[in-house]
UniProtKB/TrEMBL annotation:
<keyword id="KW-0648">Protein biosynthesis</keyword>
<dbReference type="InterPro" id="IPR004365">
    <property type="entry name" value="NA-bd_OB_tRNA"/>
</dbReference>
<comment type="similarity">
    <text>Belongs to the class-II aminoacyl-tRNA synthetase family.</text>
</comment>
<dbReference type="GO" id="GO:0005737">
    <property type="term" value="C:cytoplasm"/>
</dbReference>
<keyword id="KW-0436">Ligase</keyword>
<keyword id="KW-0547">Nucleotide-binding</keyword>
<keyword id="KW-0963">Cytoplasm</keyword>
<dbReference type="InterPro" id="IPR002312">
    <property type="entry name" value="Asp/Asn-tRNA-synth_IIb"/>
</dbReference>
<dbReference type="Pfam" id="PF01336">
    <property type="entry name" value="tRNA_anti-codon"/>
</dbReference>
<dbReference type="GO" id="GO:0004816">
    <property type="term" value="F:asparagine-tRNA ligase activity"/>
</dbReference>
<dbReference type="GO" id="GO:0005524">
    <property type="term" value="F:ATP binding"/>
</dbReference>
<keyword id="KW-0030">Aminoacyl-tRNA synthetase</keyword>
<dbReference type="InterPro" id="IPR006195">
    <property type="entry name" value="aa-tRNA-synth_II"/>
</dbReference>
<comment type="subunit">
    <text>Homodimer.</text>
</comment>
<dbReference type="InterPro" id="IPR045864">
    <property type="entry name" value="aa-tRNA-synth_II/BPL/LPL"/>
</dbReference>
<dbReference type="GO" id="GO:0003676">
    <property type="term" value="F:nucleic acid binding"/>
</dbReference>
<dbReference type="InterPro" id="IPR004364">
    <property type="entry name" value="Aa-tRNA-synt_II"/>
</dbReference>
Length: 430
RNA sequence: UCCGCGGUAGCUCAACGGUAGAGCGUCCGGCUGUUAACCGGAGGGUUGUAGGUUCGAAUCCUACCCGCGGAGCCA
């Protein structure tokens, strides 16, 4: 019977076939230990010289790391085996003999591993990270599906900037001039929210910023919910519930993977509602008390975020930023027009911002005024302004950065390991 | 773009003005329970590039290239 390695314990005593690749090999002359992986797990296959033909035994001795093979044998419980079960080999068939494999079971630098990202993905640690990523995405989208949000994706090729500030990737587009790769689906989400009430989009977004930090990619995946008839406080409740659902589901279903990457599980188990909600002004007071004063009106940088977030065991919202720090579409606070109804969520342990969002301007005249203040061409935003002409309502939305969320939940240093093929300022290969 | 660190064998690193080395991987040999197995042997180098100082440069100086970390910006 053909099985996957993750099912091996259910087939103890049975004759099975495993199709996979040679992960590693040890031998003591008359007995080979072949570590075979198939994507679902790793199992030790044991081949004794006496129990197979001499030609098969010799062929196994010549197997190279990552050679693909079919192994047939009996599953046996054995405390000496990594994983608790091993396979007594009866027959083995080589599908493809691998060339000498560049990633050896020793230390390698990040640069070398990134050059071999297409092969690095075969390692245990990367398997754990990719499974955690998949679970984060599944948990977040399932949460939104459960709460009545319709997935309605936004275009990737767009005619203009969503926010005039950040740099965009540009590409020729037939006779219509240049198109830009999207930096956010938000504007389209707002249109969709007026059509369906609650929506979200999920896909890659692009920022042509020359950022070289552990938190930045030029291509990253963002999950962006948007809801009509929603104001700031309710948005924070939704974001909080979603993050708790995501962390809880990863803890529940990907615990072994978290252990593989040596994540401190207690820190994740502390992620429970309610999250602290700090106004920008309160954040400044904390920075002042911590001896890192920041003048009012300045945006929080990486160091400031670390000071704020490390004071708490759980993610923390910072809301009501100065208007000049934020994008043109942010709704001003009616009691204090110099601040806007934004709220960013900072992950603990120094991971920084994983969510940015807030309440959008729903008043036509105010939005037009903001476009002028930001020197944005109004004619490009006519369809966006229409949303304020035809049944405008208070509405909120936010963007969850998938790679930053995965990096935080998995406890890894750099977002580049949180995506299969990272795109960085200096990396477009493989 | 700015600041800091770095580039030596396939990989990870040592040698810091006086003959360029180790571990791992590779290849050959040995070993019937290995756990990044172990033991013996072999092969492997224009020390990022170009110039300079010196009797002598991987080492000191200059320029450039590339990489890493951080800042700004953001998710």
């Amino acid at each position: 019977m053909r099985i996957r390695i993750e099912e091996a314990s259910a087939h103890a005593g049975a004759e099975v076939e495993i199709r996979g690749w040679l992960y590693h090999k040890r031998s003591s002359g008359s007995i080979h230990f072949l570590l075979v992986r198939d994507g679902s797990g790793v199992i030790q296959a044991v081949m004794a010289k006496q129990e197979v033909s001499p030609s098969l035994f010799a062929a196994a001795a010549d197997l190279t790391q990552e050679s693909s093979l079919l192994v047939r044998g009996t599953v046996r419980e054995d405390s000496r085996a990594p994983g608790g079960h091993e396979l007594t080999v009866r027959d083995l068939q080589v599908v493809g003999l691998a060339d000498p494999y560049p990633i050896t079971p020793k230390e390698h630098g990040v640069e070398f591993l990134m050059d071999h990202r297409h092969l690095w993905l075969r390692s245990r640690r990367q398997h754990a990270l990719m499974r955690i990523r998949a679970e984060v995405i599944r948990a977040a989208t399932e949460f939104l599906d459960r709460h009545g949000y319709l997935r309605m994706d936004a275009p990737i090729l767009t005619p203009a900037a969503v926010e005039g500030t950040t740099t965009l990737f540009e590409t020729p587009y037939f006779d219509l001039g240049n198109a830009f790769l999207t930096q956010s689906g938000q504007l389209y989400n707002e249109a969709a929210a007026s059509a369906f009430g609650r929506v979200y989009c999920f896909g890659p977004t692009f920022r042509a910023e020359k950022s070289k930090t552990r938190r930045h990619l030029t291509e990253f995946w963002m999950l962006e919910p948007e809801a009509a008839f929603m104001e700031l406080d309710e948005y924070m409740e939704v974001a909080e519930a979603m993050i708790c659902a995501v962390v809880g589901q990863v803890l529940d279903r990907r615990r072994l993977d978290l252990q593989e990457v040596e994540r401190n599980l207690a820190a994740l188990e502390a992620v429970q509602p309610p999250f602290p909600r700090l106004s920008y002004d309160e954040a400044l007071n904390r920075l002042h008390a911590a001896g890192k004063p920041l003048p009012w009106g300045e945006d929080l940088g990486g160091d400031e975020e670390t000071v704020i977030s490390s004071a708490f065991q759980r993610p923390v919202f910072v809301h009501r930023y100065p208007a000049k720090c934020k994008a043109f579409y942010m709704q001003p606070d009616r009691d204090r027009p110099d601040v806007v109804l934004s709220a960013d969520l900072l992950a603990p342990e120094g991971y920084g911002e994983i969510i940015g969002g807030g309440q959008r301007i729903h008043d036509l005249q105010l939005l037009q005024q903001r476009l002028r203040e930001h020197h944005l061409p109004e004619h490009v935003y006519q369809w966006y302004l229409d949303l304020r002409r035809y049944g405008s309502v208070p509405h909120c939305g936010f963007g969850l950065g998938i790679e930053r969320t995965v990096a935080w939940i998995a406890g890894i240093e750099h977002v580049r390991e949180a995506i299969p093929f990272p795109r960085l300022m200096n990396r477009l290969y493989p």
